[in-house]
Amino acid sequence: MANTELLIGVDLGGTNMRVGAVTEDGKVFHRLKLPTNVELGLQEVVEKLIKTIRQVIQEAVSNGDRIIGIGIGSPGIIDIKSGIIVSSPNFPQWKQVPLKQIIEERISIPTFLDNDANAFALGEKWLGAGKDVQSLVCLTLGTGVGGGIILGGHLWHGVNGMAAEIGHMTVVPDGLPCNCGNSGCLEMYASASSIVRRIVIALQAGESSAVTDYVNNDLTKITSDLVYHFALKGDSLAGKIMHETSIYLGIGIANLINLLNPEMILIGGGLTNAWDLIYPDMIQEVHKRAFEVPAKRVKIVRASLNDNAGIIGAAGIAHLNLKKLSKYIPS
Fold first, then answer.
1. Which of 49, 51, 141, 211 is 20 to 30 A off residue 8, Cα-Cα?
2. What pTM did the predictor assign?
Protein backbone atom coordinates (compact mmCIF):
# COMPACT_ATOMS: atom_id res chain seq x y z
CA MET A 1 0.00 0.00 0.00
CA ALA A 2 3.05 2.28 -0.06
CA ASN A 3 2.89 5.56 -2.03
CA THR A 4 -0.90 5.72 -1.66
CA GLU A 5 -2.95 8.86 -1.11
CA LEU A 6 -5.02 8.40 2.03
CA LEU A 7 -7.72 10.28 3.90
CA ILE A 8 -8.04 10.36 7.66
CA GLY A 9 -11.54 9.54 8.86
CA VAL A 10 -12.52 10.57 12.40
CA ASP A 11 -15.68 9.28 14.07
CA LEU A 12 -15.95 11.48 17.16
CA GLY A 13 -18.61 9.94 19.37
CA GLY A 14 -19.94 10.80 22.79
CA THR A 15 -18.53 7.52 24.13
CA ASN A 16 -15.62 6.64 21.83
CA MET A 17 -13.47 8.28 19.16
CA ARG A 18 -12.40 6.18 16.18
CA VAL A 19 -9.67 7.26 13.76
CA GLY A 20 -8.37 5.48 10.68
CA ALA A 21 -6.61 6.02 7.36
CA VAL A 22 -8.87 5.26 4.39
CA THR A 23 -8.04 4.48 0.77
CA GLU A 24 -10.10 5.62 -2.21
CA ASP A 25 -11.74 2.19 -2.40
CA GLY A 26 -12.74 2.32 1.26
CA LYS A 27 -10.16 0.12 2.93
CA VAL A 28 -9.34 1.20 6.49
CA PHE A 29 -5.79 1.06 7.88
CA HIS A 30 -4.06 2.08 11.10
CA ARG A 31 -7.37 2.14 12.96
CA LEU A 32 -7.46 3.36 16.56
CA LYS A 33 -10.36 3.45 19.02
CA LEU A 34 -10.22 5.28 22.35
CA PRO A 35 -12.76 6.43 24.94
CA THR A 36 -13.74 10.06 24.36
CA ASN A 37 -13.95 10.89 28.09
CA VAL A 38 -16.23 13.88 27.57
CA GLU A 39 -16.18 14.51 31.33
CA LEU A 40 -12.53 15.62 31.08
CA GLY A 41 -13.59 18.78 29.26
CA LEU A 42 -13.15 20.31 25.83
CA GLN A 43 -9.39 20.92 25.92
CA GLU A 44 -8.52 17.40 27.07
CA VAL A 45 -10.77 15.77 24.46
CA VAL A 46 -9.36 17.90 21.65
CA GLU A 47 -5.79 17.17 22.73
CA LYS A 48 -6.53 13.44 22.77
CA LEU A 49 -8.10 13.72 19.33
CA ILE A 50 -5.09 15.56 17.89
CA LYS A 51 -2.69 13.03 19.42
CA THR A 52 -4.67 10.13 17.96
CA ILE A 53 -4.85 11.68 14.48
CA ARG A 54 -1.11 12.32 14.56
CA GLN A 55 -0.46 8.73 15.54
CA VAL A 56 -2.47 7.40 12.60
CA ILE A 57 -0.76 9.87 10.25
CA GLN A 58 2.67 8.83 11.53
CA GLU A 59 1.91 5.16 10.92
CA ALA A 60 0.69 5.90 7.39
CA VAL A 61 3.60 8.17 6.50
CA SER A 62 6.15 5.67 7.85
CA ASN A 63 4.67 3.22 5.35
CA GLY A 64 5.38 5.65 2.52
CA ASP A 65 1.82 6.94 2.11
CA ARG A 66 0.57 10.53 1.90
CA ILE A 67 -2.36 12.05 3.77
CA ILE A 68 -4.38 14.46 1.60
CA GLY A 69 -7.26 15.36 3.89
CA ILE A 70 -8.99 14.84 7.22
CA GLY A 71 -12.72 14.34 7.64
CA ILE A 72 -14.39 14.53 11.05
CA GLY A 73 -17.88 13.38 11.95
CA SER A 74 -19.05 14.95 15.21
CA PRO A 75 -22.37 14.76 17.02
CA GLY A 76 -24.45 17.91 17.31
CA ILE A 77 -25.32 20.99 15.29
CA ILE A 78 -22.51 21.68 12.83
CA ASP A 79 -21.86 24.84 10.83
CA ILE A 80 -20.38 22.98 7.88
CA LYS A 81 -19.04 25.98 5.96
CA SER A 82 -17.02 27.32 8.89
CA GLY A 83 -16.27 23.94 10.47
CA ILE A 84 -17.69 24.93 13.85
CA ILE A 85 -19.51 22.69 16.33
CA VAL A 86 -22.34 25.05 17.27
CA SER A 87 -23.66 22.84 20.07
CA SER A 88 -23.95 19.17 20.92
CA PRO A 89 -26.19 17.42 23.44
CA ASN A 90 -23.48 14.75 23.77
CA PHE A 91 -20.87 17.43 24.57
CA PRO A 92 -22.86 19.82 26.77
CA GLN A 93 -19.94 22.21 27.37
CA TRP A 94 -19.07 22.52 23.68
CA LYS A 95 -20.42 25.78 22.25
CA GLN A 96 -19.15 27.39 19.05
CA VAL A 97 -16.04 25.16 18.92
CA PRO A 98 -13.99 25.92 15.75
CA LEU A 99 -12.75 22.34 15.43
CA LYS A 100 -11.78 22.59 11.75
CA GLN A 101 -9.57 25.59 12.46
CA ILE A 102 -8.00 23.97 15.53
CA ILE A 103 -7.08 20.77 13.67
CA GLU A 104 -5.75 22.59 10.60
CA GLU A 105 -3.60 24.89 12.74
CA ARG A 106 -2.13 21.99 14.70
CA ILE A 107 -1.76 19.40 11.93
CA SER A 108 -1.58 21.49 8.71
CA ILE A 109 -3.76 19.20 6.59
CA PRO A 110 -7.06 20.31 4.99
CA THR A 111 -9.81 19.33 7.44
CA PHE A 112 -13.58 19.11 6.97
CA LEU A 113 -16.29 18.75 9.58
CA ASP A 114 -19.80 17.34 9.36
CA ASN A 115 -22.36 15.73 11.61
CA ASP A 116 -21.34 12.20 12.64
CA ALA A 117 -24.61 10.66 11.50
CA ASN A 118 -24.20 12.33 8.08
CA ALA A 119 -20.78 10.70 7.86
CA PHE A 120 -22.26 7.38 8.93
CA ALA A 121 -24.94 7.66 6.23
CA LEU A 122 -22.34 8.48 3.59
CA GLY A 123 -20.22 5.47 4.58
CA GLU A 124 -23.18 3.10 4.33
CA LYS A 125 -24.21 4.62 0.98
CA TRP A 126 -20.73 4.19 -0.42
CA LEU A 127 -19.85 0.67 0.70
CA GLY A 128 -22.53 -0.58 3.06
CA ALA A 129 -26.13 -1.73 3.11
CA GLY A 130 -27.29 1.38 1.22
CA LYS A 131 -24.97 1.18 -1.78
CA ASP A 132 -27.74 0.13 -4.19
CA VAL A 133 -30.35 2.74 -3.23
CA GLN A 134 -30.61 6.44 -3.96
CA SER A 135 -32.81 7.54 -1.05
CA LEU A 136 -32.20 6.40 2.50
CA VAL A 137 -32.46 7.61 6.06
CA CYS A 138 -29.89 6.52 8.62
CA LEU A 139 -30.42 6.45 12.36
CA THR A 140 -27.56 5.87 14.77
CA LEU A 141 -28.61 4.60 18.18
CA GLY A 142 -25.82 5.17 20.64
CA THR A 143 -25.18 7.81 23.27
CA GLY A 144 -27.85 9.77 21.41
CA VAL A 145 -29.93 9.28 18.28
CA GLY A 146 -28.27 10.68 15.20
CA GLY A 147 -29.72 11.01 11.72
CA GLY A 148 -28.45 11.26 8.17
CA ILE A 149 -30.50 11.63 4.99
CA ILE A 150 -29.43 10.82 1.45
CA LEU A 151 -31.75 11.92 -1.36
CA GLY A 152 -30.96 11.34 -5.02
CA GLY A 153 -27.62 9.83 -3.97
CA HIS A 154 -26.50 12.98 -2.15
CA LEU A 155 -26.39 13.99 1.49
CA TRP A 156 -29.20 16.37 2.42
CA HIS A 157 -27.80 19.09 4.67
CA GLY A 158 -30.67 21.58 4.66
CA VAL A 159 -30.26 25.32 4.20
CA ASN A 160 -27.87 25.77 7.14
CA GLY A 161 -26.29 22.33 7.13
CA MET A 162 -28.34 21.29 10.16
CA ALA A 163 -30.86 18.87 8.67
CA ALA A 164 -31.64 15.33 9.90
CA GLU A 165 -31.65 15.98 13.65
CA ILE A 166 -33.94 12.97 13.91
CA GLY A 167 -33.11 12.35 17.55
CA HIS A 168 -34.79 15.62 18.44
CA MET A 169 -38.17 14.91 16.94
CA THR A 170 -40.72 15.12 19.74
CA VAL A 171 -42.36 11.75 20.36
CA VAL A 172 -43.70 12.34 23.89
CA PRO A 173 -45.25 15.76 24.62
CA ASP A 174 -43.95 16.96 28.00
CA GLY A 175 -41.73 13.88 28.19
CA LEU A 176 -38.27 13.47 29.68
CA PRO A 177 -36.09 16.62 29.43
CA CYS A 178 -33.39 16.44 26.76
CA ASN A 179 -29.95 18.05 26.79
CA CYS A 180 -31.01 20.02 23.69
CA GLY A 181 -33.43 22.04 25.83
CA ASN A 182 -36.59 20.38 24.56
CA SER A 183 -38.47 17.55 26.24
CA GLY A 184 -39.83 14.28 24.93
CA CYS A 185 -37.24 13.92 22.15
CA LEU A 186 -36.80 10.55 20.42
CA GLU A 187 -33.25 10.54 21.77
CA MET A 188 -34.64 10.31 25.30
CA TYR A 189 -36.53 7.11 24.45
CA ALA A 190 -34.62 5.25 21.73
CA SER A 191 -30.91 5.64 22.50
CA ALA A 192 -28.65 3.30 24.47
CA SER A 193 -28.16 5.95 27.14
CA SER A 194 -31.93 6.47 27.42
CA ILE A 195 -32.40 2.78 28.25
CA VAL A 196 -30.04 3.18 31.18
CA ARG A 197 -31.61 6.45 32.27
CA ARG A 198 -35.16 5.09 32.23
CA ILE A 199 -34.40 1.88 34.11
CA VAL A 200 -32.49 3.85 36.76
CA ILE A 201 -35.47 6.21 37.15
CA ALA A 202 -37.77 3.19 37.55
CA LEU A 203 -35.50 1.52 40.10
CA GLN A 204 -35.17 4.73 42.10
CA ALA A 205 -38.97 4.96 42.09
CA GLY A 206 -39.21 1.56 43.76
CA GLU A 207 -39.59 -0.88 40.86
CA SER A 208 -37.56 -4.08 41.06
CA SER A 209 -35.24 -5.89 38.67
CA ALA A 210 -32.58 -8.58 38.84
CA VAL A 211 -30.26 -5.99 37.31
CA THR A 212 -29.98 -4.35 40.75
CA ASP A 213 -28.51 -7.47 42.36
CA TYR A 214 -26.17 -8.03 39.44
CA VAL A 215 -24.57 -4.59 39.90
CA ASN A 216 -24.60 -4.90 43.72
CA ASN A 217 -26.99 -1.95 43.99
CA ASP A 218 -24.52 0.34 42.20
CA LEU A 219 -26.83 1.82 39.58
CA THR A 220 -23.92 3.61 37.88
CA LYS A 221 -22.75 0.21 36.58
CA ILE A 222 -25.91 -0.42 34.58
CA THR A 223 -25.42 -0.48 30.79
CA SER A 224 -27.87 -0.85 27.92
CA ASP A 225 -26.32 -4.22 27.05
CA LEU A 226 -27.01 -5.37 30.61
CA VAL A 227 -30.66 -4.30 30.34
CA TYR A 228 -30.92 -6.14 27.00
CA HIS A 229 -29.34 -9.26 28.56
CA PHE A 230 -31.82 -9.33 31.44
CA ALA A 231 -34.74 -8.62 29.11
CA LEU A 232 -33.83 -11.77 27.20
CA LYS A 233 -33.80 -13.68 30.50
CA GLY A 234 -37.36 -12.61 31.21
CA ASP A 235 -36.75 -9.77 33.68
CA SER A 236 -40.02 -7.83 33.77
CA LEU A 237 -38.66 -4.30 34.15
CA ALA A 238 -35.83 -4.78 31.65
CA GLY A 239 -38.32 -6.23 29.18
CA LYS A 240 -40.67 -3.31 29.68
CA ILE A 241 -37.88 -0.79 29.01
CA MET A 242 -36.78 -2.59 25.83
CA HIS A 243 -40.40 -2.87 24.64
CA GLU A 244 -40.96 0.87 25.16
CA THR A 245 -37.72 1.61 23.30
CA SER A 246 -38.92 -0.46 20.34
CA ILE A 247 -42.28 1.32 20.28
CA TYR A 248 -40.81 4.83 20.33
CA LEU A 249 -38.29 3.89 17.66
CA GLY A 250 -41.15 2.59 15.51
CA ILE A 251 -43.05 5.86 15.98
CA GLY A 252 -40.03 7.85 14.83
CA ILE A 253 -39.44 5.63 11.81
CA ALA A 254 -43.13 5.80 10.80
CA ASN A 255 -42.90 9.59 10.82
CA LEU A 256 -39.83 9.44 8.57
CA ILE A 257 -41.53 7.09 6.14
CA ASN A 258 -44.61 9.32 5.89
CA LEU A 259 -42.45 12.41 5.44
CA LEU A 260 -39.79 11.21 3.00
CA ASN A 261 -41.00 7.91 1.44
CA PRO A 262 -37.40 6.59 1.24
CA GLU A 263 -36.23 3.32 -0.29
CA MET A 264 -34.42 2.35 2.91
CA ILE A 265 -34.27 3.06 6.63
CA LEU A 266 -30.88 2.01 7.90
CA ILE A 267 -30.18 1.63 11.62
CA GLY A 268 -26.78 1.44 13.27
CA GLY A 269 -25.06 2.13 16.56
CA GLY A 270 -24.51 0.15 19.72
CA LEU A 271 -28.18 -0.44 20.40
CA THR A 272 -28.46 -2.64 17.31
CA ASN A 273 -26.77 -5.35 19.39
CA ALA A 274 -30.34 -5.87 20.64
CA TRP A 275 -31.76 -5.98 17.10
CA ASP A 276 -33.52 -9.34 17.46
CA LEU A 277 -35.35 -8.09 20.54
CA ILE A 278 -36.15 -4.61 19.24
CA TYR A 279 -37.11 -5.36 15.63
CA PRO A 280 -40.48 -7.20 16.05
CA ASP A 281 -42.15 -4.52 18.21
CA MET A 282 -40.54 -1.74 16.18
CA ILE A 283 -41.74 -3.04 12.82
CA GLN A 284 -45.24 -3.68 14.19
CA GLU A 285 -45.41 -0.05 15.31
CA VAL A 286 -44.16 1.15 11.93
CA HIS A 287 -46.94 -0.68 10.09
CA LYS A 288 -49.46 0.54 12.62
CA ARG A 289 -48.61 4.21 12.03
CA ALA A 290 -47.08 4.65 8.57
CA PHE A 291 -49.02 4.74 5.31
CA GLU A 292 -49.43 1.21 3.99
CA VAL A 293 -47.81 1.47 0.54
CA PRO A 294 -44.55 3.23 1.51
CA ALA A 295 -44.31 1.14 4.71
CA LYS A 296 -44.47 -2.08 2.69
CA ARG A 297 -41.93 -0.90 0.15
CA VAL A 298 -39.26 0.55 2.42
CA LYS A 299 -36.44 -1.71 3.56
CA ILE A 300 -35.67 -1.37 7.26
CA VAL A 301 -32.26 -2.93 7.86
CA ARG A 302 -29.23 -2.91 10.15
CA ALA A 303 -26.11 -1.05 9.13
CA SER A 304 -23.43 -3.33 7.70
CA LEU A 305 -20.13 -1.49 8.23
CA ASN A 306 -20.24 -1.69 12.03
CA ASP A 307 -17.50 0.32 13.74
CA ASN A 308 -15.93 1.39 10.43
CA ALA A 309 -18.99 3.19 9.02
CA GLY A 310 -18.21 6.49 10.74
CA ILE A 311 -14.53 6.38 9.78
CA ILE A 312 -15.27 5.58 6.14
CA GLY A 313 -18.00 8.18 5.95
CA ALA A 314 -15.86 10.89 7.56
CA ALA A 315 -13.13 10.17 5.02
CA GLY A 316 -15.82 10.48 2.34
CA ILE A 317 -16.80 13.90 3.75
CA ALA A 318 -13.20 15.03 3.22
CA HIS A 319 -13.17 13.61 -0.29
CA LEU A 320 -16.45 15.32 -1.17
CA ASN A 321 -14.96 18.62 -0.14
CA LEU A 322 -11.85 17.87 -2.17
CA LYS A 323 -14.06 17.79 -5.30
CA LYS A 324 -14.05 14.02 -5.83
CA LEU A 325 -17.71 13.26 -5.19
CA SER A 326 -18.15 10.71 -7.98
CA LYS A 327 -15.76 8.24 -6.36
CA TYR A 328 -17.80 8.11 -3.17
CA ILE A 329 -21.41 8.26 -4.31
CA PRO A 330 -21.89 6.52 -7.65
CA SER A 331 -24.90 7.65 -9.63
1. 141
2. 0.84
